[in-house]
Specification:
Number of strands: 0
Number of domains: 1
Radius of gyration: 15 Å
Distance between the termini: 29 Å
Length: 94
């Protein structure tokens, strides 16, 4: 929100593929990030093609780095049991 992203858009992240608040470029980046971080998904040719429609090669490298860094930071925080910084709500436990 500090970067100017509306709270409604952040709340709609789970529906980024269909929510009209997201541009095609944002959808490509979010689908790419989802494929990278989820164990049950692959970053296939169609996903790469979609990203390359909207991002240059240097931008794609930066995107991969950013996704990887955030994944690393999450795992590091988990390992050291660091308290959440308030950027997201915890998932409900079953």
């Amino acid at each position: 929100m500090k970067a100017g992203i509306p709270a409604t858009k952040l709340a709609a992240l789970d529906a980024f593929e269909t929510d009209p608040q997201f541009s095609e470029r944002e959808r490509a980046a979010l689908a790419f990030a989802t494929a990278i971080v989820r164990e049950d998904l692959e970053v296939g040719d169609a996903c790469w093609a979609r990203v390359r429609e909207h991002f240059s090669e240097p931008q794609t490298v930066e995107l991969v780095f950013s996704i990887g860094f955030q994944t690393f930071a999450t795992q590091l925080a988990k390992a050291f049991q660091l308290a959440p910084q308030g950027f997201s709500q915890p998932l409900p436990t079953a």
